[in-house]
Amino acid sequence: MSLLRLFLFALLAGPAVAQKSPALPAAPSSPLKTYALRLKPGEDLRQQLLAFVQANRIAAGTMLTCVGSLTVATVRLANQEGPTEYRGHFEIVSLVGTLSANGSHLHLAFSDSTGRTIGGHLLDGCRVYTTAEIVVGELPALEFRREKDPTFGYQELVVGEAPKALPSQLRAPIKKR
Q1: Burial 52-79 (b: 16+ CB within 10 A, else e)
Q2: Cβ-contact 47, 123 below 8 angstroms
Q3: For the chain, which has fewer Cβ within 10 Å, the N-terminal or C-terminal residue?
Q4: Do the Cβ atoms of 112 and 28 come closer than 8 Å?
């Protein structure tokens, strides 16, 4: 088929099937504030992250990155009720999720010395081996909450705008040395 015929065919045929995808509701947005921290050997990954969120009063945050290693990895695997614990030397290949003083939801992926990778819900009991290098993002214009979703009964994410703080409630600036 000549190039002209191909062009005319495409022009006359138009779209094969016009598909409309359902419109997504508008999502609130926020500027991003970042924090970088490092956990040391023996520290509990989840406990330290949640303590950091509480100490910094993060109402809406996200894991931007985490790399490091573990000697114990404790996760809840997909569709399982209880924890599964792994002992050995593992690389953290991913840690993702939402963070909030109102409830966090985090998933961890880690690999062993053969490259076998396992992932699940991050639980208490993950012990840092050498390091955990973490960057957390805070979304100060938003607030994350957890509310029971009737579909499955789980506490699921609800995104809202952050309440306006009174001047007396604003955080004191960090003093630079």
Answers
A1: bbeebebbbbbbeebebbbbbbbbeeee
A2: no
A3: C
A4: no
Q: What are phi and psi of 117, to 5 degrees?
A: -115, 135
CA contacts within 13 A on the Cβ side of 37: 16
Residues in the chain: 177
> What is the enclosing helix (H) or strand (E) of 80?
none
pTM of model > 0.85: no
Cβ contacts of 76 within 8 Å, gap of 6 or more: 82, 83, 84, 120, 121, 123
| pLDDT tens by residue, 101-158 | 999 999 999 999 999 999 999 999 999 999 999 999 999 999 999 999 999 899 999 9
The Cα 35–Cα 148 span in angstroms is 30
Please state whether beta strands 127-138 and 61-76 pair in parallel, antiparallel, or not at all (unpaired). antiparallel
Residue for token pair 């002992």:
87
pLDDT tens per residue, range 7-31? 445 545 555 555 666 777 788 899 9
Task: Show the tokens assigned to 123.
Answer: 């639980």
Distance CA 50, CA 65 (A): 15
The candidate with the shortest Cα–Cα distance to 37, out of 56, 14, 21, 13, is 56
